[in-house]
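The methods section describes the discrete structure representation at length, but only in general terms. An entry of this sort, consisting of the sequence and the corresponding backbone structure tokens, reads as follows.
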Amino acid sequence: MDTIVIKDLEIFAYHGVLAEEKKKGQPFIVTAYLKLDLKEAGTTDELDKTVNYADICELIREVMTEQKYDLIEAVAESIASTILIKYEPIKEVRIIVSKPQAPIPMTFDTVYVDIVRKKHIVYLGIGSNLGDKEAYLDFAVDQMNMDECIKVKKISEYIVTKPYGDVEQDDFLNGCLEIETLYSPRELLLVINDIEKSAGRKRLIHWGPRTLDIDILLYDREIVMEEDLQIPHVEMAKRQFVLEPLCEIAPYAYHSGYNKTVIELFEELKRG
């Protein structure tokens, strides 16, 4: 990944915990490292193959002057998320926000925060076996597309599958999604739980019938082992209704727990 650097952009703004800081304002210094693929821009010399540096500088100025924050941590977070949301080619940013006139009663050069944020590739399993199943799956896709921090990149075909477990219930309609998101695993879990609730999901019976079920299958190559969140999904390698649609959209996605691709897991499962 290549890097565009905007270094030491000075912007007068009104951020700080003290009332005086929000009233009088002070200069802030911003440096931005923007990660994207610049190969095509370099070989074609065409502006539309890269991003306009002046536009990004103006965007940073707007973020810093349209709202007053207590913390430069919040300023940096807002700059990072705004750039990543607005510019599709930019996959990662490093933002440094410096406050050289911070109200510190000592001699110092500056204080600053330095954050790195990126877009994450995540694979989700979706399923329904109550009511209008296809409509519930489409609802999940639509709700995610309405969230500015999520972009649905690929959608598998929906397949009819037998229910998993011992509970008598109707067949499921299942599919998989590839999304690009700014959310952390924990933040994403909260978002998809809200979408499930909006679809009338009630968690009454383990592996029981449901209007909408959304599972985080893979999140980059991260491994998360928490009481209510396990990534990669602990059961996905055993479930054809997960691996089959996932193979359609991401056969070479990597399962960090098994150190195998999705298609390798699927072939193993079919062999029994």
